[in-house]
């Protein structure tokens, strides 16, 4: 594994994600299932349109129908014109007799023009609203999803694809549905007109349509199958693309001279995807060619039937022109219809994706909980709590029981991967225990409304989010609705976290946008960002404070200040529960409780003195760290036996 020439990511073929399995089934579905798909897609598009704007949807339906009716009327009037012109008698009289019918054709043409403009205007107003609505629904649903879902790669890919493709496809579905309605009305108008001229002509005008319909369906199925085959390759391609083009990886990619490896790997995956795309387009072109050829034969047959009717005297010659016109209109409208069906059928795939995403978000959201907390927690109790990340065999937290009390600083320590951050998230309800319970003042937090819970928590994350907004809101986002007349609270949080010194250096002070994505925006160093994260946590002013490695990137002076601030939070007013995750054991000496984790299990528990006296893992880790600052012998001397 991991040598030159071998797959860089380490996996070549990933399992088909659960949400893509449905498409594999679609790709292999029979024609009947496919035929059922488009009406279902149309029904969905209409429902979305209705939700976006009922009056505009109604109006769209009315103008489409009116446009179709006018087309039919125009066709029949044209037949009348031909009948009058080709009737017996002197030419001037025939022309005069045809004048009313000609006027009707002209009026129908003008009305059709006006109605087409009305259709375009109504669609133009409706369709963007549909997209906005679809986007909004998805965003609202994703924001309700449980944090743990984001640890599942299948889910995050589904969300990414659904949010990037879904709303725009739904928009085009709404557009295509309108256009499909228009072309269907035109087809009906042409078929009815042909049928009025001679009943045999009604089915004949559709002869050319069937082969094209077959080609459309076949071609879309080829596309589905290819999409499913390439799911894994596309995911690998996007990962390597991100490594090549992203800002975060840029430094390490260069420092480790991995450019040729990455480029080679991306080319290798792209070759696979390109070969598949070329194969797909070739197969689709062949299918389309067959469809068009057979369709051409169908058109020839239709005209043959017309010729036979005229030859056998089944239809007067005067109506032949009108019949040919109806056939042309039918041919054109059928072509339009097939084009729209094709679009809708292809889009139905993304609609399914979007709907799967909505279903998944529902499945992965916590059911609404009505439970309330009696107030800010005085005691948090964990009873035999276990948790496993999605798709992982091993538990990240395994059977942990402990009690955290108001006024205490509780330190979580242990080696990398021992479960500290996970446990911290379980305490706050960001993750829910797989088994066991976390209760705040005796109330199981699984039964409590999440907002009610999280309102009472301030978290300083190990890898804080660099909020792309100005410096002031980077702190205030901790609790945007907190009243702060005169900015005293902002200033206090900034002073205690050392953020004030960072802001003093910024060209626009608190108004400086902290993101390079925007003009005049600034980026910060890792430690400076961490100061902002601490300030945010302090500003939130919550009764439960979780500080997960809050000082890993801080210099000694800032670290000292931050720990003093955190101790102050718990100590001075004694009204908070402060959970501190850290590897800097010198900072946990004064904690009221130290919980030592190993492979997700709580292996030691007590105060610094108790744990040192016990002589277990904590003492070993503490001694190791202490020895880095002093001679080994001295370090042992400082540790009470
Ligand atoms: N998102 C995730 N998906 C799957 N497994 C995870 C995820 N996050 C953490 N783990 C695993 O869960 C276990 C506990 O991780 P956790 O982050 O809680 O450890 P930690 O003690 O905070 O580590 P560190 O000191 O390195 O921050 C580890 O085995 C880790 O590999």
Textual characterization of the structure:
Helix content is 63%, strand content 9%. It is an alpha/beta fold. It has 2 domains: 18-363, ABC transporter transmembrane region fold (Up-down Bundle), CATH 1.20.1560.10; 373-456 and 587-641, Rossmann fold, CATH 3.40.50. Helix 1 runs antiparallel to helix 7 (209-229), helix 4 runs parallel beside helix 11 and helix 5 (153-197) runs antiparallel to helix 11. The structure holds adenosine-5'-triphosphate. Adenosine-5'-triphosphate binds next to helix 12.
Summed up:
The protein is built from 21 helices and 10 strands.
Notable features of this structure?
binds adenosine-5'-triphosphate; Rossmann fold; elongated; six-stranded mixed β-sheet; disordered C terminus; alpha/beta; single chain; ABC transporter transmembrane region fold; ABC-type oligopeptide transporter activity; 641 residues
Main CATH class of the largest domain:
Mainly Alpha
What is the typical, i.e. mean, pLDDT?
85
How many angstroms does the end-to-end distance come to?
47 Å
Number of spatially distinct domains: 2
Quantity of strands, as a count: 10
The structural class is alpha/beta
The main sheet comes to:
6 strands, mixed
CATH topology of the largest domain: ABC transporter transmembrane region fold
Please give the count of helices: 21
Task: Give the helices and strands, then pairings.
Elements: H1 18-27, H2 31-52, H3 54-85, H4 91-143, H5 153-197, H6 201-204, H7 209-229, H8 231-245, H9 247-255, H10 259-311, H11 320-363, E1 379-387, E2 397-405, E3 409-414, H12 420-428, E4 435-440, E5 443-444, H13 450-454, E6 457-460, H14 471-476, H15 488-497, H16 499-505, H17 526-540, E7 544-548, H18 556-571, E8 577-581, E9 593-598, E10 601-606, H19 608-614, H20 617-629, H21 632-638
Parallel strand pairs: 3-8, 3-9, 6-7, 7-8
Antiparallel strand pairs: 1-2, 1-4, 4-5, 9-10
Helix pairs in contact: 1-7, 2-3, 2-4, 2-5, 2-11, 3-4, 3-5, 3-11, 4-5, 4-11, 5-11, 7-10, 7-11, 8-9, 8-10, 10-11, 15-17, 19-20, 20-21
The protein binds adenosine-5'-triphosphate.
């Amino acid at each position: 594994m991991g040598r030159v020439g071998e797959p860089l990511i380490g996996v070549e073929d990933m399992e088909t994600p659960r949400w893509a399995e449905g498409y594999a089934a679609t790709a292999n579905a029979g024609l009947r299932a496919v035929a059922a798909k488009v009406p279902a897609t149309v029904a969905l598009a209409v429902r979305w349109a209705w939700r976006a704007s009922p009056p505009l949807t109604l109006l769209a339906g009315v103008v489409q129908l009116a446009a179709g009716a006018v087309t039919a009327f125009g066709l029949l009037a044209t037949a009348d014109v031909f009948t009058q012109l080709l009737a017996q008698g002197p030419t001037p009289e025939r022309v005069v007799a045809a004048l009313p019918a000609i006027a009707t054709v002209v009026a129908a043409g003008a009305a059709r023009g006006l109605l087409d403009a009305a259709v375009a205007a109504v669609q133009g107003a409706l369709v963007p609203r549909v997209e906005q609505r679809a986007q909004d629904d998805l965003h609202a649903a994703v924001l309700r999803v449980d944090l743990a879902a984001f640890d599942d790669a299948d889910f995050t890919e589904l969300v990414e694809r659904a949010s990037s493709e879904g709303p725009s496809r739904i928009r085009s579905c709404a557009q295509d549905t309108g256009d499909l309605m228009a072309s269907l009305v035109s087809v009906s108008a042409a078929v009815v007109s042909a049928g009025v001229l001679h009943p045999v002509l009604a089915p004949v005008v559709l002869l050319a349509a069937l082969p094209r319909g077959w080609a459309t369906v076949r071609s879309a199925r080829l596309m589905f199958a290819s999409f499913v085959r390439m799911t894994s390759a596309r995911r690998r391609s996007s990962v390597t693309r991100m490594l090549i083009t992203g800002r975060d990886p840029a430094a390490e990619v260069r420092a480790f001279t991995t450019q040729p490896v990455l480029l080679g790997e991306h080319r290798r995956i792209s070759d696979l995807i390109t070969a598949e795309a070329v194969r797909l387009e070739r197969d689709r072109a062949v299918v389309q060619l067959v469809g068009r050829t057979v369709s051409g034969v169908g058109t020839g047959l239709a005209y043959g039937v017309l010729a036979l009717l005229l030859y056998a005297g089944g239809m007067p010659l005067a109506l032949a022109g009108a019949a040919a016109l109806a056939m042309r209109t039918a041919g054109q409208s059928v072509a339009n219809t097939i084009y729209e069906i094709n679009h809708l059928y292809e889009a139905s795939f993304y609609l399914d994706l979007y709907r799967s995403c909505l279903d998944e978000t529902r499945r992965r959201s916590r059911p609404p909980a009505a439970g309330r907390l009696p107030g800010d927690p005085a005691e948090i109790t964990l009873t035999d709590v276990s948790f496993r990340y999605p798709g992982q065999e091993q538990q990240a937290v395994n059977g942990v029981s402990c009690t955290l009390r108001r006024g205490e600083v509780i330190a979580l320590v242990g080696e990398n991967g021992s479960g500290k951050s996970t446990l911290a998230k379980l305490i706050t309800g960001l993750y829910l225990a797989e088994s066991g319970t976390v209760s705040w003042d005796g109330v199981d937090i699984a039964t409590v409304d999440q907002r009610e819970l999280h309102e009472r928590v301030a978290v300083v994350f190990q890898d804080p989010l660099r909020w792309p907004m100005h410096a002031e809101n980077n702190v205030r986002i901790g609790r945007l609705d907190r009243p702060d007349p005169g900015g005293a609270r902002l200033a206090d949080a900034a002073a205690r976290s050392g953020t004030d010194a960072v802001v003093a250096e910024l060209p626009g002070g608190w108004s400086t946008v902290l993101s390079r994505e925007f003009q005049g925006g600034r980026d910060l160093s890792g430690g400076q960002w961490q100061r902002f994260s601490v300030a945010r946590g302090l500003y939130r002013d919550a009764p439960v404070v979780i500080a997960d490695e809050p000082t890993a990137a801080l210099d000694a002076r800032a670290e000292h200040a931050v720990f003093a601030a955190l101790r102050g939070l718990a100590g001075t007013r004694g009204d908070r529960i402060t959970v501190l995750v850290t590897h800097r054991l010198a900072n946990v000496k004064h904690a009221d409780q130290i919980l030592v984790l190993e492979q997700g299990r709580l292996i030691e528990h007590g105060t610094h003195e108790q744990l040192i006296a016990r002589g277990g893992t904590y003492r070993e880790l503490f001694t190791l760290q202490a020895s880095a600052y002093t001679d080994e012998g001295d370090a042992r001397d400082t540790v009470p036996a």
